[in-house]
Write a structure and sequence with these properties.
By secondary structure, the chain is an all-alpha fold. It contains eleven helices and no strands. The termini are far apart.
Length: 426
């Protein structure tokens, strides 16, 4: 060991690096490209083809001219489940008869024929009996006999008139139920609609009688007051009576139109919400707040269309009837004139019966559609109806009445499984 720590080279010359062993030459391999599409073998799809599913209400489905994520509201039946436009509201009022004519127009026509036949028999019998009695009365008793005949004729006409009011009320209820059912895509026969209306017919008749008493009572009261003024006031009193009659008549028309519009939803509420009569009156009054002019305008327009159609048919019939009477009875035979007048009256009456049935159905339908439209706008009824339709399509029959409200405990309407007569959801 020495203390010299300096580096010393190794002994001998440095070693040379060993060269690497030569490798054999391997040519490069061309990359493998897939064959063209027309030379590839056919491979079946991994999953079987499934047709596109119909989207349910509320699912996004973009389409031409539509924003992504929006789906048009469904239309399971008479109307789409959304607030109704004016044209839709007007057209659906006339589609009710075409969609289900037997329990609507057919039943209304039969009931109108019954009412017309009873009215003709009662008034005709009383007129002929009174005519013979007036002709055979003594000159001193002529005035009394004539007044009694007129009073008897009025009483005879009141009974068929009251029956007509009752039958009209029944048809209003039937048509209201038909509109409610057709809105959710169901189509019932008269038997099924009558079963649903059971228990509410009395309230409908009570409402019809109440309105008739108020209307005719107001007219009779105005006539009595004007008559008394004319009798007690002499010549000046007659002028005052005429002015009072005209002013009172105009006031009755204005007030009547206002009350009719505000209370036009009462029959529909009685049937669909199954409320009591006072509650239905209050409910109709509150629902029409803010929709008075729309309700009045649609009802007046539908009534004007039906009335115009009636005049288009009845006016030519009357003209042709008068011309035919002159040709068939040129000599003016009294018996021939009476017989032809009776025939013409019967034909005109039948035409009137047909249009009376049309008027009952369309006016009842438009009131029900207005009720549905207002509730869609105010209370979101369209969502409840959509849920009801989806539940029935899925087979769920436990969904309660979509027209019922929170303050009504009765849910008998639409709460039971739908009847099998024509319902697509069975």
């Amino acid at each position: 060991m020495t203390d010299n720590n300096s580096w010393q080279p190794p002994a001998g010359p440095p070693a040379e690096p060993t060269p690497p062993a030569p490798q054999p030459f391997v040519p490069p391999v061309a990359p493998a490209f897939p064959p063209p599409a027309h030379q590839q073998p056919f491979a079946p799809p991994q999953q079987p083809f499934a047709p596109p599913q119909q989207p349910q209400y509320g699912q996004p489905q973009p389409g031409f001219g539509q924003a992504p994520g929006w789906v048009p509201p469904p239309k399971p039946g008479l109307i789409p489940l959304r607030p109704l436009a004016f044209g839709t509201l007007l057209g659906a009022s006339f589609q009710v008869m075409r969609r289900n004519p037997r329990p609507t127009f057919g039943v209304a026509l039969v009931l109108s024929l019954i009412s017309y036949a009873l009215l003709a028999a009662a008034v005709g019998g009383v007129v002929f009996a009174s005519f013979d009695r007036v002709n055979s009365a003594a000159p001193d008793d002529f005035d009394d006999v004539f007044a009694g005949a007129v009073g008897l004729g009025i009483l005879a006409a009141l009974i068929p008139l009251l029956l007509s009011v009752v039958l009209t009320a029944v048809m209003q209820g039937i048509v209201s139920l038909e509109v409610a059912r057709s809105t959710v895509g169901e189509k019932l026969r008269f038997r099924g609609l009558w079963r649903l209306a059971r228990g509410r017919i009395g309230a409908l008749i009570g409402w019809a009688v109440l309105t008739s008493v108020v209307v005719y009572g107001a007219i009779i009261l105005v006539a009595i007051v004007a008559t008394l003024i004319g009798i007690l006031g002499g010549a000046v009193g007659i002028l005052i009576a005429v002015l009072v009659g005209l002013a009172s008549g105009l006031a009755l028309v204005v007030v009547g139109a206002w009350l009719f519009t505000k209370l036009s939803l009462v029959p529909t509420i009685l049937l669909l919400e199954r409320r009591t009569l006072p509650a239905a009156i209050k409910r109709s009054w509150s629902l029409t707040n803010g929709y008075f002019w729309k309700t009045l305008g649609v009802q007046l327009l539908v009534g004007a269309i039906v009335s115009a159609a009636s005049q288009v048919i009845s006016t030519p019939v009357g003209f042709i009837g008068g011309l035919a009477g002159s040709l068939l009875n040129p000599n003016g035979d009294p018996e021939g004139e009476v017989g032809f007048l009776v025939l013409l009256t019967v034909i005109s009456g039948l035409i009137g019966v047909v249009f009376q049935a049309i008027t009952i159905v369309t006016m009842s339908a438009v009131s029900s559609l207005i009720y549905v439209d207002i509730r869609m706008r105010k209370e979101g009824l369209d969502l409840e109806l959509a849920r009801f339709v989806e539940a029935r399509q899925a087979g769920d029959t436990s969904v309660e009445n979509p027209y019922a409200t929170a303050d009504v405990t009765s849910t008998s309407y639409l709460a039971t499984p739908p009847p099998a007569d024509g319902s697509p959801w069975v």
